[in-house]
Design brief:
The protein has 163 residues and is of the alpha/beta class. The protein contains 5 helices and 4 strands, in the order βαβαβαβαα. The longest helix is centred in the last third of the chain and has 27 residues.
Length: 163
């Protein structure tokens, strides 16, 4: 597993099931992964839109992380941002928390987009080529096409649900 110096992790839908404004059930696989990154030396930043208003929603998220034994380096900021000082800024001046890795249920990895797009392009092409070349290739295409469409549907579900 690669080592990332700073890891920004979303809360609702990422560390726990999305039940906002309540705190959802823990997502243990994600929590274990984040804890493993921390054990390897990554600094974990809770990066959430939760705030403390009439209800202390942000405090609830921080308490959840503590209960799950997620070692937080910071919350909604990166005091160790190496790029801010290079540009004459304070670490808190930027609108986006600097991190080497962002873990968020609402994010889409560009690789997922590329895989999804490739599957959508390849499946119809296989059908077209099989009609031109003949029955042997048609059999191959008929065998592969459902799998490619399932892969495309799977990637679509990942991009939509990412839970």
């Amino acid at each position: 597993m690669p080592k990332y110096e700073f890891v920004a992790v979303d809360f609702d839908g990422t560390l726990c099931a999305d039940a906002f404004p309540e705190v959802g059930e823990p997502k243990t696989l994600v929590i274990d992964y984040v804890k493993r990154l921390a054990a390897e030396g990554s600094k974990i930043i809770l990066y959430t839109s939760r705030e403390n208003g009439t209800r202390k929603l942000l405090d609830e998220a921080v308490a959840f992380c503590k209960a799950q034994e997620i070692p937080l380096y910071a919350v909604n900021e990166n005091p160790g941002n190496p790029h801010a000082a290079k540009n004459g800024l304070k670490h808190s001046d930027g609108r986006k928390v600097f991190a080497d890795l962002y873990i968020d249920d609402k994010a889409v990895n560009p690789l997922a987009i590329e895989l999804f797009s490739a599957a959508e392009i390849i499946a119809p092409e296989l059908q077209r080529v099989s009609a031109v070349i003949g029955p042997n290739l048609r059999q191959i295409a008929e065998t592969l096409t459902p799998h490619l469409w399932r892969a495309a549907a799977y990637m679509r579900a990942i991009m939509r649900d990412a839970r």
